[in-house]
Design goal:
With 194 residues, this protein is of the alpha+beta class. The chain folds into two domains: 107 residues, no CATH class; 62 residues, DNA Binding (I), subunit A (Orthogonal Bundle), CATH 1.10.30. The strands form four sheets. A five-stranded mixed sheet has the order 2-1-7-3-4. The relative contact order is 0.17.
């Protein structure tokens, strides 16, 4: 079960207990062993206790815990650690993706203003790729599929279309707003706003 070492299943908090990153157990063990981080022993909302590496390696493995087996003992894999000397919450721009373009554009066709269901729209390159248009926040918009097909490899004005708003990159957000509990870990729910 040591393949668990490379899965991103450890939430990292800053010293103010704000979520700032997601790491692998291997990274977490290294940070804990060098006193860069402490593990959180979590047994429900009312029992959250920071634990040093020396104590962590002696903790019992509870039902449902992941563990790494060494020659001497099994060591519980932490689900949440605290970076003890780090206070900032880094900022980051959302990843460029069709979903994030759709969210930025409010699920509306940027040529007609029509509210679209996700399957009714598609990404449109304002300056088509065939004309050197790039995959950037400033060149991608959410468009109704029929409008996108009609526009084809033309510039909007050549297809008789006009953008309702100028596409821009979204502002950087605290990483806390971008972290997701994709594994559904109960302990993470105490620290993420989802």
């Amino acid at each position: 079960m040591n393949d668990i070492l490379n899965k991103t299943i450890v939430l990292v908090l800053n010293r103010n207990w704000q979520a700032i990153n997601i790491r692998t157990p291997q990274d977490a063990f290294c940070q804990m062993a060098t006193n860069v981080a402490t593990g959180l022993d979590i047994a429900g909302e009312n029992h959250i206790r920071p634990v040093t590496w020396e104590e962590w390696i002696t903790l019992p493995i509870r039902e449902g815990d992941h563990a790494v087996h060494t020659a001497r003992r099994a060591i519980r894999v932490p689900t949440v650690i605290v970076a003890v000397n780090f206070a900032k919450v880094p900022k980051k721009r959302p990843k460029l993706s069709a979903r994030n373009i759709r969210e930025r554009d409010g699920n509306r066709c940027q040529y007609t203003g029509r509210l679209l269901h996700p399957d009714e729209g598609s990404l449109d390159h304002v300056v088509p790729r065939s004309r050197g248009g790039a995959d950037t926040w400033e060149n991608l918009v959410w468009s109704a599929k029929d409008v996108n097909q009609r526009k084809a490899d033309r510039l909007p004005h050549e297809a008789g279309l006009k953008l309702l708003t100028v596409p821009r990159a979204p502002k950087e957000l605290p990483v806390t707003a971008l972290l997701r509990n994709t594994h559904g870990l109960a302990e993470w729910k105490l620290f993420l706003n989802e």
